[in-house]
Amino acid sequence: MAISTSPASLLQYTLLIIPTYIFILSPLSTILFSAPSLPPANSLDPNNTLVLPSPSLSCPNHTYPIHLLSRSPLILYIPSFLTPNERDHITSLANPLYAQSPIYAGTQASIDMSIRNSSRAQLPRDDIVQCIESRALALQGWPVDTYVERLWAQRYEAGGHYSHHFDWAGELSARGGGRVSTLMVYVACEGCEGGGTEFPRLEKPKGAEWCEYIECADGEEEEERTGVTFRPVAGSAVYWENFKPDGRGWEELWHAGMPVRKGTKIGLNIWSWYQPGFREIFDKRLVEAEKEEL
Ligand SMILES: *[C@@H]1O[C@H](CO)[C@@H](O)[C@H](O)[C@H]1NC(C)=O
Ligand SMILES: *[C@@H]1O[C@H](CO)[C@@H](O)[C@H](O)[C@H]1NC(C)=O
Ligand SMILES: *[C@@H]1O[C@H](CO)[C@@H](O)[C@H](O)[C@H]1NC(C)=O
């Protein structure tokens, strides 16, 4: 199976949201649902929370295979999600921008290296980055009112890790929006040992072909092994959907960035955020901003 991502026109209504929330209600939903008014004018500033990719963006064709690991929850494995050029580009874009990654309690950020020890860099949105954002939306079939959050590169040096956690919080309907999907993309892992992404509650697929992408062992050891650990193969991605159809999060998606024992791992997070009604609000704001400019 191959998917062809195609260019620009698809992007017209793509909006992007910075992740300032991991665990609790996003401040954005407060803005959207407590105030009848539109997002502030500076929402159209490319450095702000909400951004609109350039309608003139044109992306080179990129095709890649997809392997289905699980239907419920939906989990896909995607080799070659990034091209070697894109990987180099992300690595050098992120390089000067790293800072220690925080953890969140609500919107309150703090550093706790026993839980999360990595540094992260928000990527500036040049054409290559926007084409990756657009590829993520194309993979999902451009769902309405679903936007990509600003992309973050994550760097794990030897000793770095991220303890088990969910990417979802609460119930989708109760929250009025949420982080509906995750693409965990491996950008680089030179001379790496460790650093896999472990899902202890998933059932390991039987096909030996999977051993290229997930950790396998021989004989008895393999029989005792539970869960799935994706190996950080550069360029590849794991995609999963965080919520069940009834709006509750999948408990099976408990996962961790396992300790990097050697080398440096660079990952890329692409989170998609569902915010019902948001496209309409943003469109109105866009028309208003255009009038102001006249
Ligand atoms: C966005 O931020 C960058 C880096 O801080 C700055 O150079 C640029 O001027 C900002 N753009 C706008 C439109 O404010
Ligand atoms: C990309 O693929 C489409 C459809 O196959 C084709 O029409 C288009 O010319 C291709 N663009 C590039 C830049 O190769
Ligand atoms: C955090 O990671 C660094 C490498 O980036 C390592 O030297 C350090 O020992 C780690 N600290 C903890 C508390 O895990």
Automatic annotation (TrEMBL):
Q: Which UniProt keywords apply?
A: Dioxygenase, Iron, Membrane, Metal-binding, Oxidoreductase, Transmembrane, Transmembrane helix
Gene Ontology CC? endoplasmic reticulum
One GO MF term: L-ascorbic acid binding
In what residue span(s) does the Fe2OG dioxygenase domain sit? 146-276
Q: Which SMART domains match?
A: P4Hc
InterPro entries assigned to the protein according to its UniProt record, in alphabetical order: Oxoglu/Fe-dep_dioxygenase_dom, P4HA-like, Pro_4_hyd_alph, Pro_4_hyd_alph_FE2OG_OXY
Segments passing through the bilayer: 12-33
* Required cofactor names: L-ascorbate
This protein is called Fe2OG dioxygenase domain-containing protein
- Per the UniProt record, the source organism is Microthyrium microscopicum
